[in-house]
Design goal:
The protein contains five helices and two strands, in the order αββαααα. It is mainly alpha-helical. The chain folds into two domains: about 30 residues; about 100 residues, Cytochrome C3. It is elongated and about 70 Å long. The protein starts with a helix and ends with a helix. The structure holds heme C (4 copies).
Length: about 130
């Protein structure tokens, strides 16, 4: 009898651990497009971006490749990441209406890597899919 309830509590613990792992993971799994709140009026179609799938096929293991943090000396931090912030939180000068810089930062991050690796879209309509 005692052994039986021990088994049940073990199973319950296991299920709870699986659920916790799943909800931590599904947070980023939900990202299917890039939709920065700073772009209140979209001039181009929304960019599809299957977050986890993209990073898997592109073989990018480090979150900081995109969600980077720079230290006070302007050097890329090796152990900090910024996935809790949208890019505009750092790349849009305070309440600026001019989004040119922010657009450039997005394009540089996405396109430069695609160019470097000679893989992934680089033409407007390949990313801004109608
Ligand atoms: C190739 C670039 C890239 C890599 C690598 C990457 N991400 Fe992201 N991530 C993005 C972009 C782009 C968004 C969408 C931002 C938006 O829409 O504002 C995003 C969104 C997120 C979000 C949602 C944030 C929100 O505001 O809801 C989380 C969480 C996240 N990423 C976590 C991670 C983790 C954890 C890793 C590493 C395992 C990772 N990302 C690797 C580009 C990347
Ligand atoms: C916590 C603040 C912060 C966040 C969030 C952030 N960045 Fe940056 N980023 C910086 C700083 C600081 C630099 C270095 C100074 C500069 O180039 O403006 C930088 C540099 C860059 C550069 C030029 C150097 C390089 O790595 O190629 C690009 C492109 C870039 N960021 C794009 C992005 C994109 C796209 C996102 C969102 C996925 C993002 N950044 C999120 C702070 C941030
Ligand atoms: C560090 C490198 C890197 C960065 C940064 C990066 N990509 Fe990619 N991306 C790749 C590679 C490599 C491929 C090709 C993967 C393959 O098909 O083998 C790719 C493929 C793609 C594809 C086609 C495959 C798919 O997932 O549908 C899209 C769309 C794409 N990238 C969008 C983006 C966007 C949008 C950003 C910026 C938010 C971005 N990428 C940032 C490396 C990168
Ligand atoms: C590699 C993918 C990629 C390519 C190629 C690309 N873009 Fe983007 N672009 C993005 C991403 C990601 C954003 C941020 C989108 C967001 O958060 O809504 C963006 C944002 C923009 C925005 C601001 C948001 C809006 O819709 O008003 C404009 C304008 C824009 N791009 C125009 C262009 C033009 C013009 C080209 C071709 C010269 C181009 N893009 C090529 C990925 C790309």
């Amino acid at each position: 009898m005692k052994q039986h309830s021990l088994k049940i509590s073990l199973i319950i613990t296991l299920i709870m651990m699986l659920m916790a792992a799943y909800s931590a993971h599904s947070q980023e799994e939900d990202v299917k497009t890039v939709e920065d709140d700073a772009f209140t009026e979209q001039m181009r179609p929304i960019v599809p971006f299957l977050h986890d799938e993209h990073n898997e096929i592109a073989e990018i293991a480090e979150c900081g490749v995109c969600h980077h943090v720079y230290d006070d000396n302007g050097l890329l931090s090796e152990d900090e990441t910024s996935e809790e912030s949208q890019c505009s939180e750092c790349h849009l000068p305070a309440k600026s209406k001019d989004k040119t810089e922010l657009i450039k930062y997005y394009h540089n991050q996405c396109k430069n890597c695609h160019l470097q690796r000679n893989a992934g879209p680089i033409m407007c309509a390949e990313c801004h899919v109608k």
